[in-house]
Amino acid sequence: MTRLFSPVVLVSLFLSLSSAICSATVENAADCVAVGTLISSCTEFVNYGYPDPVPGSSCCDAMTVLGTYSDSSDKRRWLCNCFIDLISVYNSNATAISTLSGFCGIVLGFTIDPNTDCNFIQ
Question: Of 6, 83, 99, 100, whose CB has the highest number of CB atoms within 10 Å?
Fold first, then answer.
């Protein structure tokens, strides 16, 4: 399999996206774009249902960044709202988006589901 990016480029991208997520504030909805950018590494799975994301894949690495970010109630509520926004845009792929954290073994502190009320996340 041919790699599209060298490991150095991937690490740089991962670190820059990590800092974009970690510097986000609850009030800044534009930072949901950073969440979408991270989730874009899961595009094949979200669009086609394969290959399943596995720990160590770029998709699961992105989910790990998001899991690390969800260390407070405010951040979990904000992140939940970002996922709900993604699901509303990519409604036909809601199931795939909902299963990402489970495939990757990441606990976000909430269920990714279109029916989740993010306001009640602790």
Answer: 83
